[in-house]
Structure formats: structure tokens, C-alpha cells
Amino acid sequence: MGFRLPGIRRTSFAAKVSSAKCAEVPKGHLALYVGEEMKRFVIPISYLNQPSFQELLSEAEEEFGFDHPMGALTIPCTEDVFLKVTTCFNGC
Known about the structure:
Number of strands: 4
Oligomer: single chain
Distance between the termini: 21 Å
Helix content: 25-40%
Order of helices and strands: EHHEEHEH
Strand order of the largest sheet: 1-3-2-4
Mean pLDDT: 76
Strand content: 15-25%
């Protein structure tokens, strides 16, 4: 059984490649990749103001600099850590 976090959408990389619709990012959102499986998440840009999210961005900068392997922002943590960090952004 799964659960849905408000404000976060997850798509697989394979789905992104095979469907142009997945490549669309709504206004006010940002697409990024997380974890070893490079799962694609679409998050509200308001997350960028959160100190814990900024820490994830700093880790991405240290690991990748401005050369991201997917051509988009890549967060170098597990999917579980990413979800744990972002869960409380919408109030917990």
C-alpha cells in the first residue's frame, strides 16, 4: 500500500523518456532526480526556501557542481531521505 504526499509527484525515468507529457512541469514547480534509480520528482519551488532542502542542494553542489548527469538537478540521497525531508514542508 502506498501513500501520497501533497505537493510532490514522482515519475520513473523510463516513463519520462517514453512520454512527453511527463516532461511537462507545471508553473511554480521544479523537476529533479533523486537516488540511485534517478526517480523524477516534481516539487513546488517554495521548497527551495526550506533550510533542510537547501542542505540537500548544498550536497548536490558538492557532489555534482553544475554538471548534473541527468541534465537536470540531481539530489544525491536516497528516495527515503528525500521524502523524509520534504514530508513536513506542507505541515506535519
